[in-house]
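lol forgot to send this yesterday, sorry. struct tokens for the thing we talked abt
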């Protein structure tokens, strides 16, 4: 019963956040200069007036905002201004599976290798292994994915010709390797450093010293007593990190030519496709809220003290 109340309270708390996100993004897009029908060759005044009337662009901004919120409540993100034969919902449903596959693969790889590297570094604290792991971790944090992606293309696609430089090819594994690595590397570094710091703190706890004094092997202490509290901060980080990877794949999708949601977002921003940009922003906002909610519930089940307090 307490879990249901907690979930409902989070859902209710997300409503003002989503409304604020919609209003802010809507007004920000409207404030930008230009319009969706600003072409290289100017349209006749009658044609442009008809287009603006058809898309309700001649209404006051506040009226447009109220209409847009009402349409979203009905599950309608509206028509695309540039992709005339598609609605925004259809474009999102076409691009999101690619972004989801890319982001989910990246977070799985980042979680596995980041946790492994961080655990090894913590167990080998202040040794060459620790310093080497944290050195590469700092490099991974310092180099953004829009720099890492061209470097990976240069070495693995151009110089050594081992993998394709871009393209989707119906989701071929070879075409997904470099984009996934580009997204995963910074998160591997973050998770490794977070795991190392958390495990070092747990290893210095009183219950670990007591277990060592009782003669329990270090392997058993780590597996049975250390890993669970170590991964509590990691669980908190997974939700925002997953949302950040999926929403942050915009640049990577553009570099590798993937037909994901990021491509539509970039094209929509360049073409002033109001409804497409707004639809992607609202969709991403819902994703972030959903991931954070999932992590909060999972965190409560892992830590009994938090579950009891809730």
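and heres what i got for the seq, position by position
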């Amino acid at each position: 019963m307490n879990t249901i109340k907690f979930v409902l309270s989070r859902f209710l708390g997300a409503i003002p956040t989503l409304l604020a996100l919609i209003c802010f993004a809507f007004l920000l897009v409207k404030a930008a200069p230009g319009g969706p029908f600003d072409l290289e060759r100017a349209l006749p005044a009658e044609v442009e007036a008809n287009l603006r009337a058809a898309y309700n662009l001649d209404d006051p901004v506040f009226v447009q905002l109220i209409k847009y919120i009402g349409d979203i409540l009905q599950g309608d993100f509206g028509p695309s201004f540039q992709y005339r034969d598609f609605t925004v919902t259809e474009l999102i449903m076409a691009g999101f599976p690619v972004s989801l596959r890319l982001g989910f693969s990246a977070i799985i790889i980042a979680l596995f290798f980041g946790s492994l590297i961080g655990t090894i570094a913590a167990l080998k604290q202040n040794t060459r292994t620790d310093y080497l792991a944290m050195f590469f971790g700092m490099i991974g944090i310092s180099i953004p994915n829009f720099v890492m992606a061209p470097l990976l293309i240069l070495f693995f696609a151009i110089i050594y010709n081992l993998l394709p430089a871009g393209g989707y090819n119906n989701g071929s594994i070879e075409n997904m390797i470099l984009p996934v690595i580009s997204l995963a590397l910074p998160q591997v570094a973050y998770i490794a450093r977070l795991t190392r710091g958390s495990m070092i703190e747990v290893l210095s706890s009183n219950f670990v010293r007591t277990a060592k004094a009782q003669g329990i092997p270090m392997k058993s202490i780590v597996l049975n007593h250390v890993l669970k509290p170590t991964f509590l901060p990691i669980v908190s980080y997974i939700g925002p990190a997953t949302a950040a990877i999926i929403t942050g794949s915009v640049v990577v999708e553009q570099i590798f030519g993937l037909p994901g949601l990021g491509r539509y977002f970039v094209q929509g921003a360049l073409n002033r496709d109001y409804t497409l940009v707004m639809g992607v922003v609202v969709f991403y906002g819902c994703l972030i809220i959903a991931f954070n909610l999932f992590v909060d519930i999972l965190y409560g089940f892992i830590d009994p003290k938090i579950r009891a307090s809730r």
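The CA atoms of residues 87 and 234 lie 38 Å apart. anyway ping me if u want another try
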